[in-house]
Amino acid sequence: MGKGERTRKDIIDKAFLLAGDIGLEGLSLGALASEAGLSKSGLFAHFKSKEALQLAVIDDIGERVSEIIIRPALAEPRGEPRVRAFFERYIEWIANGRPGGGCIYMALCHEYDDRPGAVRDKLVAGQLEFSATLERLVRAAMDEGHFRADLDPRAFVFEFLGIEMAYQHRSKFLRLPEAHDYARAAFNGLIARSRVPTSPSSTE
Amino acid sequence: MGKGERTRKDIIDKAFLLAGDIGLEGLSLGALASEAGLSKSGLFAHFKSKEALQLAVIDDIGERVSEIIIRPALAEPRGEPRVRAFFERYIEWIANGRPGGGCIYMALCHEYDDRPGAVRDKLVAGQLEFSATLERLVRAAMDEGHFRADLDPRAFVFEFLGIEMAYQHRSKFLRLPEAHDYARAAFNGLIARSRVPTSPSSTE
DNA sequence: TGATTAAAAGCGACCGGTCGTGCTATTAAT
DNA sequence: ATTAATAGCACGACCGGTCGCTTTTAATCA
Questions:
Q1: SS3 labels along A69-136
Q2: What domains does chain A contain, in order, with CATH numbers?
Q3: ipTM of the complex as predicted
Q4: Residue pLDDT, tens place only, B3-26
Q5: Which residues in chain A touch residue B167, judged by CB atoms under 8 angstroms apart?
Q6: DSSP summary character for residue B147
Q7: Nearest nucleic acid nucleotide to A1, CA to C1' distance
Q8: CA A65 to CA A188: how far, in whole Å?
Q9: B125–A contact, CB cutoff 8 A
């Protein structure tokens, strides 16, 4: 029984890596089976359909995100350090590529832009929850006086994710090495704009 | 002959729309053929392979981008209006979805993150050229004193594309209606930071 | 301890379907 | 009659998924 659970986890791990390369939909069960060291029919003993496997992979991604990004960030002091740790963990996840990272929600979405279904719903839910977590961090930093009170946390999240997306796209697809520096600089600018202003009176 | 050229353009138009929905790789020649009103084998009279068709579609996207985004932007006065027109046209392209827009490079890239080939190369080239055009606009605005001299044009382009990506992702996939406003606000912030400072001495 | 047995897991073969891609016959215009 | 273009069709490869059989595993009982 324990052995079986181990196999199931192995399959999800391999599927996680493959999905990072070719997406959740393009993932071939035959390729996954041979990668995980069993036959295609053996897969169906663990997952009753491709969709069930995809949903399991999305669950797994959520757990990885919690473990690798969210939990370590929450271990940091409240306010800017916590938001910054969130950024650092996130950028590191993207930069690592694989193993252990490399596939995050965003790369998997475009396949489902116009394709409704349980997989799409779960992807959307996962990302909304992720955004909400970051938004909560920012809101807490505002409440405790680390960020300016007139900041819009959702706008912050919007810009944050834009930076991460541009970083992922320009480093992984366009292979521009300077993307890393620009991402960090853009994030620093975002933080600077979000901090309470040091000079007391600056009216535009 | 003229008739043939017309048919070829029709096929590319349909392929452009289909690729916007399901990507360049997921595009099915059978679906495309029936959509364009000919048989699957009829396609091969116009394009000798799927790859040739994909390359033609990418060329077509480049022409559309020139026509719909770049050319109108260049008609605006130099400096901020030109950069702003670039942004407005781009955001409009994304918002339109279809017909006539909706498919832009970014949504097509993830399929080729780890798949080398002529299609990937052409996609990369198209995007680098697109980025270079925007970078040239920003650089000109700097040279003519509209933007601050210590601005990094590539960093500007990085943030610009990040905003557009976040907008596309959050409006088309997550269906968040506020994405439009946040994109515009983020762009205004980017412009404000890029302008020459009105208050003469601000060291920080 | 060693034999029995039932269940769990894995395997190869195979199904219907779709894919990209060539070949061939038919059509239609010159 | 010639020729260019098209439709129909067959092909091999691959897809997600099913089925029946064999092997391994682990608990049971003598």
A1: HHHHHHCCCCCHHHHHHHHHHHHHHHHHCCCCCCCCHHHHHHHHCCCCCHHHHHHHHHHHHHHHHHHH
A2: 50-194 (1.10.357.10)
A3: 0.89
A4: 445 688 888 998 998 888 888 888
A5: 162
A6: B
A7: C8
A8: 23
A9: no
